[in-house]
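User: quick one, sequence for these tokens?
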């Protein structure tokens, strides 16, 4: 059985999807971009600030499912420019313990929603 996970502390979906789905003990998050959930504005000051907003949005979704970054087993990172990888990785690393960090892939794509620079989704296990 699946349970819909939703929180006002992360951006509301803008289409036919949910912030996350909990299926059994596994949480699947939708991709998050750098929307500030308080005002609905994109946070694009720098790639570091943008990535931090994405990670904070994901943190809020994890918390709504009573989970945290230690329970994340897989992440998918989509970026519009591989030259931003180092800056994204630096912020991303602040949220994980290197010894227990999840598996992940990072893929450069032609375009992302709202033409942002980074989108991240996660899978976590209770």
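Assistant:
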């Amino acid at each position: 059985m699946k349970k819909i996970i939703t929180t006002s502390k992360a951006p509301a979906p803008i289409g036919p999807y949910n912030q996350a789905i909990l299926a059994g003990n596994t949480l699947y998050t939708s991709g998050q971009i750098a929307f500030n959930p308080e005002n609905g504005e994109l946070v694009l000051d720098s790639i570091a600030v943008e990535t931090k907003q994405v990670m904070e949005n994901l943190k809020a979704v994890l918390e709504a499912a009573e989970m945290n970054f230690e329970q994340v087993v897989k992440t998918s990172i989509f970026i519009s420019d591989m030259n931003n990888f180092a800056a994204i990785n630096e912020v991303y690393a602040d949220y994980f313990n290197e010894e227990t960090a999840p598996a992940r892939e990072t893929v450069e794509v032609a375009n992302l929603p709202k033409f942002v620079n980074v989108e991240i989704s996660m899978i976590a296990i209770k």
